[in-house]
Amino acid sequence: MSQTLPKNVHVSRHPCLRVKLSQLRSGKASSRETNDLVHEIATIIGCEAFADNISVAPGEKNTTPLGYEYTTSSITPDKIALVPILRSGLGMVNAVHHLGLFREPTTLEPVEYYNNLPFQPNSTGVNSAAAKLAIIIDPVVATGSTASAAIQTLREWGVERILFLCILGSHAGLIKAAGEWEEGVQVWTGAVDEQVDMKGMIQPGLGDIGDRLFSAGGRTSVS
Q1: Which tens digit of pLDDT belongs to each residue from 89-142?
Q2: Residue 147 pLDDT more than 60?
C-alpha cells in the first residue's frame, strides 16, 4: 500500500471472513446469497470490534432452570446506538436509528435525505438522548465522503465514541473516514482494496452492494 493506515483503522485477519468476502465479490452471487454473506461478515467484524470496545458489568441476580442462583451480566456502556447508513447498511443489521445518505452522481459528495436521531435537550442544552457509543454500519467505504458525513452528524448529535464497521474499504476512503474525528472514531473493516474508479466504485470491490442486496429479481450489479 502507498500509505500506512491510521492507528484507528483495524483490518480483520479472520480466515472465515476472508473466505466469505471472496464469495461476496463474485458477480454470480444471488441477492439472497449476497444478503446472507453480508450478514455473516458483519457478525464477524462486529464481534471483533465489540471485544475491544465493550465491557461486561455484573447485573441482577437470577436463577437457572434448576433453581441455582447466579449473577447476570450486562454490557457497558449501556447506551449504544446502532446506526446503519441507508440503504445498504440495513443488510448488516436491524437497527433503531437510521441515517439516509446518498452520493451525488456527478460530484460524489454525500447528501443527507433522512435522519431519525432523537434530540432531547436538558437544562444546559446538551442532548440527553444521544448515545455514549454509536456504531455506524455501511458495507463499503469507497471515497470516504459518506462515512465522514455520517461521523460528523453523530458527533454533532452528541455521542462520545463511534465505531464504524464496514465490510470493505478503499485505502484512501478509510484514511479519510478515520481522520474525520481521530480521537473519537475507530474504523473496523473486513478488507482493504487500493483503487477507486472515476465513478467512485472500489476496484475490484463488491459492485453496487445496495443494488445487490435489494434487487427483487436477484440481479447483481458489478463494476
Answers
A1: 666 655 455 565 656 666 666 656 556 666 656 656 666 557 789 999 899 999
A2: yes
Spans of all domains in the chain:
9-57+75-214
- Give the pLDDT of residue 178: 97
The grid coordinates listed for 19 are 473466505
Q: Is 145 helix (H, G, I), strand (E, B) or coil?
A: helix
**How do beta strands 110-115 and 133-137 pair?**
unpaired
- Output the 3-class SS for 81-108: EEEEEECHHHHCCCCCCCEEEEECCCCC
- With contact defined as beta carbons under 8 Å apart, do 76 and 56 qualify? yes
For the 9-57+75-214 domain, the top CATH level (class) is alpha beta
Angstrom distance (rounded) from CA 9 to CA 164:
9
Q: How far apart are CA 182 and CA 199, in angstroms?
A: 27
Does the bond joining 77 to the residue before it have cis omega, within 30 degrees of 0? Answer: yes
